[in-house]
Amino acid sequence: MQSELLNPLAESSRIEKMPDPCTMVIFGASGDLTKRKLIPAIFDLARQGVLPSGFTIVGAGRTAMSHEVFREYMFKALKEFGRFQESEKALWETFVRGLFYVTIDPGKPEEYAKLKKELEVINEARRAGENVLFYLSTPPGMYSPIIKGLSGAAMNKPGGQNAWVRIIIEKPFGVDLNSARQLNREVLSVFDEEQVYRIDHYLGKETVQNLLVFRFANGIFEPIWNRNYIDHIQITAAETVGVENRGGYYEHAGAMRDMIQNHMLQLLALTAMEPPVLFDAQQVRDEKQKVFQAIRSIRPDEVHEYSVRGQYAAGTVNGASVLAYKSERGVSTESVTETYVALKLQIDNWRWAGVPFYVRSGKRLPKRVTEIAIQFKKTPHHLFRHLPADSLDHNNIVIRVQPDEGISLKFSSKIPGSFMRMRPVTMDFRYGSSFGGHLTDAYTRLILDCMLGDATLYARGDSVDVAWQLITPVHEGWISNKNSKIHDYTSGTWGPKEADELLARDGRRWRLP
Ligand SMILES: NC(=O)c1ccc[n+]([C@@H]2O[C@H](COP(=O)([O-])OP(=O)(O)OC[C@H]3O[C@@H](n4cnc5c(N)ncnc54)[C@H](OP(=O)(O)O)[C@@H]3O)[C@@H](O)[C@H]2O)c1
To answer: Is the pTM of this model over 0.85?
Structure first.
């Protein structure tokens, strides 16, 4: 086998830095994430010509597979999930020479010696260098045994002087504060924090990255990005799907662990953070951490005032009848797992004092949409007195994370004609029409960043910890506080009416995304 550039265009490609040659070992490579996201994302890097010379992927898992069978399986996955085109056959032929599979049970410490040996043989042939990236794409229960197994075989430390070993850990990172702390302890007893990449794929989405550009590369928004001009902020992640075939997993997770603890709090932190001094991993993550630390905790005895949880009942979504959550496969008929959460969060710092952040996420809602809406204060003086007050709406900036990615600004405009009448209009920026083509998938960006040693868009251990510190008392209150109830909502609606009341108490209402 020859060491090769995966794409002859690589040398001329215009990224600032090429990753070092490396081998990526994927634990759980026979699973869903590898075929749906990881292989398509890595092939996309080959497409962009940014994979280093000799780049090698080694799948690892219990499912017995030859290299050949793994390669065929990955090719099928790429055709199904990776926008593969027949014209890319030659690129695939080069790519596939770097795909290998090692059958091991990652739960058995003694099997890591075998993995190490196989990696040496593959590396000898591929000349991929000594850098290794481990990707934990197994169920979370396997993270700890894998970390111990790697350490037992001394695979956690680089083999050469300038070499590196990094590890990407999938979500969920713990199921509560104690388990997250325990996992952090285990990881950090074996790896240094600089080696650890805790993935939150929301951070790799184009629009989420663009939030930083929008705020900090433009002069006109930052001066008004504070309590003097902003009335409140709404962050919504709505899904039309139910739990699909993940009922068993979801019963133990719920919307709070699945969406709020990670993705939604990360979006909130990027929206609320102060401008970092430098755009690097430490400075950006330091600023985010300050936001997490400033979020006022919700005590168990006040959860009914600041949180609403719901569970979907039967209904109609996109014209199709759907089951109630309790009737889904793998779900208890007595379940009290929340499929919807709305929170009112307050950030106790100079910039945001008195500006509530309303955060909601739910399944079986009418529309699939993730957005951050910045709702500005009304004008201080009502000049057009003869018009009904509600014809003058709030200005807002909406950052649409998905789908139909873009940013819109809403303001009032005069309706053409002889009379002074007004209505709100929007100025829209859409990625699709401005830049064309496909947006890079979050995994593509994040895997490349890890190869480059840039952890800016990954969650740091301390932020995962503080996010669990915020969420845990809410969970406790849901169990212990008699005033806190779980409310049914009909599938295909925007959640329980109690979520509307959460805002109505403050004289506000949810946007219709
Ligand atoms: N799928 C997604 O879209 C998605 C999205 C976000 C995050 N994630 C996270 O990514 C990780 C992987 O997700 P996935 O959907 O690919 O998981 P998965 O399909 O359930 O499992 C991946 C692989 O892990 C191995 N595995 C399963 N149970 C094991 C056990 N008890 N002991 C040892 N190995 C075991 C299996 O491979 P072998 O039997 O061959 O060993 C399996 O194919 C999870 O932590 C998940 O939470 C997934």
So the answer is: yes
